[in-house]
Amino acid sequence: MLFHVRMDVRLPHDLDPEVRAGIVAREKEYSQQLQRAGKWPHIWRIVGEYSNFSIFDVESNDELHTLLSGLPLFSYMDIHVTPLAKHPSDIN
Amino acid sequence: MLFHVRMDVRLPHDLDPEVRAGIVAREKEYSQQLQRAGKWPHIWRIVGEYSNFSIFDVESNDELHTLLSGLPLFSYMDIHVTPLAKHPSDIN
Amino acid sequence: MLFHVRMDVRLPHDLDPEVRAGIVAREKEYSQQLQRAGKWPHIWRIVGEYSNFSIFDVESNDELHTLLSGLPLFSYMDIHVTPLAKHPSDIN
Amino acid sequence: MLFHVRMDVRLPHDLDPEVRAGIVAREKEYSQQLQRAGKWPHIWRIVGEYSNFSIFDVESNDELHTLLSGLPLFSYMDIHVTPLAKHPSDIN
Amino acid sequence: MLFHVRMDVRLPHDLDPEVRAGIVAREKEYSQQLQRAGKWPHIWRIVGEYSNFSIFDVESNDELHTLLSGLPLFSYMDIHVTPLAKHPSDIN
Amino acid sequence: MLFHVRMDVRLPHDLDPEVRAGIVAREKEYSQQLQRAGKWPHIWRIVGEYSNFSIFDVESNDELHTLLSGLPLFSYMDIHVTPLAKHPSDIN
Amino acid sequence: MLFHVRMDVRLPHDLDPEVRAGIVAREKEYSQQLQRAGKWPHIWRIVGEYSNFSIFDVESNDELHTLLSGLPLFSYMDIHVTPLAKHPSDIN
Amino acid sequence: MLFHVRMDVRLPHDLDPEVRAGIVAREKEYSQQLQRAGKWPHIWRIVGEYSNFSIFDVESNDELHTLLSGLPLFSYMDIHVTPLAKHPSDIN
Amino acid sequence: MLFHVRMDVRLPHDLDPEVRAGIVAREKEYSQQLQRAGKWPHIWRIVGEYSNFSIFDVESNDELHTLLSGLPLFSYMDIHVTPLAKHPSDIN
Amino acid sequence: MLFHVRMDVRLPHDLDPEVRAGIVAREKEYSQQLQRAGKWPHIWRIVGEYSNFSIFDVESNDELHTLLSGLPLFSYMDIHVTPLAKHPSDIN
């Protein structure tokens, strides 16, 4: 079941640089683990912004919330989720 | 080069049903032709809305505008385009 | 799996009164059928508006879109869907 | 008498972690007490957000404001209340 | 129990003038009947707009929706309702 | 001459609790003085928010600005003023 | 007493050209009469829009609403009124 | 003196196709005349929309309004103008 | 050449009171100097807000930006500029 | 390939003045280097704001994101990118 997710990162300017680097590194690892598991099939950078559009493939709403709220950057992001359905023109 | 596109269809209620059916059929054919050509790799229905999120893969901004403005539903849609870049966490 | 749905009805003023009455009657029947089937556990009128907040309980995003796009009033409504998860404070 | 409530939590990043944990724990206890008393029949997490949609069942507007302004997280939340009425299609 | 209501009238330009005059006359009569009954204690014109701010005093959300949806202008208005509580500084 | 005023209080979380209590106490006294003088005939709490809708009755725009900018909470509030006129349906 | 007014004209495309010309001519005459009477001291065109910013100088809110609702274009405009006070830096 | 202008075309769906074609042709001619005169140095299509971003180079606000309100599509467009100044980093 | 300017002052609550008083005093002096020079013919306080509507009369966009960016409060304000043209109904 | 970019600078008031001056100086140098390389053909100041409208000329979305995210002010700006296509009325 697919969901469209927009994430906008809002890191405070006075965050300690080492703390920041640590969070960002853990975020990358966490994201890549979910990508390899097939849960997060697409992630694209929005040009010019510290933001991404992503597609998640999960079993349920609860699973999606668990994955998103586990993001190391979760408390520093605005996240907006849109549920997706198969489009009648889709050839796949 | 990838672009994220949101399309919201606004067909007038008093459109002749046959005219409407004709436009919608041509739209589907046009969309599937671009999908088969690899120009329109993803199209998803937004649940509950007469709208879609799509990903286009084109050579240039001009090519994208030519494809979008050629949509049979073009004059009946609100379209918003967002350019995408590779995300540093993307494993592909 | 639960979804929160807001529906705002926008019937054109020049719609034929009989056509209008027919659509509204079919909408009620369709809604009550889904309520009895357990798919649409809650529907509340928003005070002062021709709108409702509803909760749907479905198996998948695709099922939800099928149910919503089958509403007799579908082409006369703005619909916005929000996926819900279990709240950690929920006692049920 | 039912009310629809949306709550968005905005905890400052520099809040002392112990203070934060204390507030969140008291919020949970307060919420569950109201749920058991039948005043707060539904609470759902909005997927991907530190937010909830809730339904309150109270005797009056004044009672609702007393309950909401007593929330331990009250000064850290944006709250929006919408009064609800019985929907003519509701089968209950 | 008090509610704050904003009403914005949107009469279509091509409405038959007699039909329009009839609706507006019935609206005035209906409003004054509710004012005399103590249900609609305040109504003020918003300067420069075909709009009003009103205060309603009713027993329940359901009663308020019944009164508002019975307005002869109901289908030609945008209505927004806000529930009110006693303010701690109020001397009355 | 009547004006509709919405006030939204935004007290910073790190404000000293005693300073805060002092401001809030002076605000209450100031408000009640204006209410007794007939300048501030109505004040209602917006349910669930640290906000109010008020009605002011003043001689001029300048008098209203003097009263509002003298509020002890003035620099901690978003204030929006709407001028009111007599409504043609008003029975008073 | 001064008020800032923004007016945005929305004339329907299918309005009869003679009717339109008549309304616009009466609007100009009405406006110039109020300007000569000192009630409407300033009117400026917003560059690129069928809109104006105006300053009105009236005795009361009621007088302002009477003047604005008497505009021949009143039912074809969005009007927004902002009350003005003397600025402490104003040298006049 | 430079101005940034955004134009969004909103042609009604029921406009007579010949009338439409005539307006669009005159718009093009009018635009190219101003481009050749150096008044309209840049015009770009916004990808996916019936809209443009333009730069105008004029002597005054009045000249700009005269040029824009003379556009054959003027009454079918939303136009928003932003005045521009030399940027301190500009190398030209 | 006239421009309409809205300025909203956002002074941080933790600004040193003496620093604040100094900036505000220099702002007043700067404003009155421009008023006396005929560059800033009107300034009005927006009732209930720490904001003003102003009219500037300058030779060019560049001159306007120089004047505005020289305001002692410049980095503490949101400023929005709208270019004005002569209105066809203006009697002056 | 052309892109329209709006940049709004939001420097925190408590930023160390030397740090600030250093960033702003590096930003200018970086911008002028890209201008000289033909990548950033236009930059205009928005009158009254710490903002600019720019045109970038790049090979791809990825190149544009690399250039923008390398801006010394990047983490202090809101940036919005709009892809541009050739306009059919453009004479160049």
UniProtKB/TrEMBL annotation, chains A, B, C, D, E, F, G, H, I, J:
Q: Which SUPFAM superfamilies match?
A: Dimeric alpha+beta barrel (SSF54909)
Keyword annotations of the record = Aromatic hydrocarbons catabolism, Isomerase
- Gene3D superfamilies tied to this protein: Dimeric alpha+beta barrel
Q: Which residues form a coiled coil?
A: none
TM ranges are: none
The protein's matches in InterPro entries, at most eight in alphabetical order, are given as:
Dimeric_a/b-barrel, MLI_dom, Muconolactone_d_Isoase
What GO molecular function annotations does the UniProt record carry, in alphabetical order?
A: muconolactone delta-isomerase activity
Q: Which processes are annotated in GO (biological process)?
A: beta-ketoadipate pathway
Question: Any idea where the Muconolactone isomerase domain is?
Answer: 1-90
Question: What does it catalyze?
Answer: (S)-muconolactone = (4,5-dihydro-5-oxofuran-2-yl)-acetate
Supply the EC number(s). 5.3.3.4
Q: Which pathway features in its UniProt record?
A: Aromatic compound metabolism; beta-ketoadipate pathway; 5-oxo-4,5-dihydro-2-furylacetate from catechol: step 3/3
- Annotated family: Belongs to the muconolactone Delta-isomerase family.
Q: How is this protein organized at the quaternary level?
A: Homodecamer.
Name recorded for this polypeptide: Muconolactone Delta-isomerase
| Organism whose genome encodes this protein | Amycolatopsis taiwanensis
